[in-house]
């Protein structure tokens, strides 16, 4: 038994194969959706997702949210992992690019991403998913890994669907 949901054991920090990661995520998703059923408070949803996605995505060293707190600014929200930057200007970094464009940022090698912010210089790859309403990004889900190429399109697609549903009726 992991924190709150049932998953096969996997060591924190390991990079499983893409097939193993997708199977693990597919096992977790119905359980995560069941836990979040009916919850509308954005911080409650963010906190619970940070916890349960951290348990599911063992390749992550940072798993959590940045929230839109101004036209040009993100501030850190609920997360698990190493200490993150407290504030991010929308002009900077992978999270900033996601918040500006409202598009998923799947970055297999952060050293090749112009303007990447090294909050933790062990980060090698990153996935950022926007949470948007009517085109306006209200928050982003940020996942960082010390492994290169630690996130696949299949995982990204599933996380887009999860956060789309989880925050559909949320109060920010
Ligand atoms: N690497 C991110 C910054 C956030 S933290 O590392 C948690 C970026 O470039 O947006």
Please bin the fraction of helical residues.
25-40%
CATH topology: Beta-Lactamase
Number of domains: 1
Low-pLDDT segments: none
Bound molecules: methionine sulfoxide
Q: What is the strand content?
A: 25-35%
Total of helices: 4
Q: Mind describing the biggest β-sheet?
A: 6 strands, antiparallel
The CATH architecture comes to 2-Layer Sandwich
SS content category: alpha+beta
Number of β-strand runs: 6
Mean of the pLDDT scores?
A: 96
Any idea of the CATH class? Alpha Beta
> How would you classify the quaternary structure?
single chain
Helix and strand succession?
Answer: HHEEEHEEEH
Placed side by side, the strands forming the largest sheet appear as 3-2-1-6-5-4
Q: Compute the separation of the termini in Å.
A: 31 Å
Supply the CATH superfamily name.
GAF domain
